[in-house]
Amino acid sequence: MGLRFEDQGQLQLLDRDEAEEEDDCFESIDKLISQGINAGDVKKLQDAGIYTCNGLMMHTKKSLTGIKGLSEAKVDKICEAAEKLVNTGYMTGSDLLLRRKSVIKITTGSQALDELLGGGIETLSITEAFGEFRSGKTQLAHTLCVSTQLPTHMHGGNGKVAYIDTEGTFRPDRIVPIAERFGMDPGAVLDNIIYARAYTYEHQYNLLLGLAAKMSEEPFRLLIVDSVIALFRVDFSGRGELAERQQKLAQMLSRLTKIAEEFNVAVYMTNQVIADPGGGMFISDPKKPAGGHVLAHASTIRLMLRKGKGEQRVCKIFDAPNLPEAEAVFQITPGGIMDAKD
Question: For residues 196, 165, 222 and 253, what is the CA-based torsion angle, rounded to 10 degrees?
Answer without folding.
Answer: -110
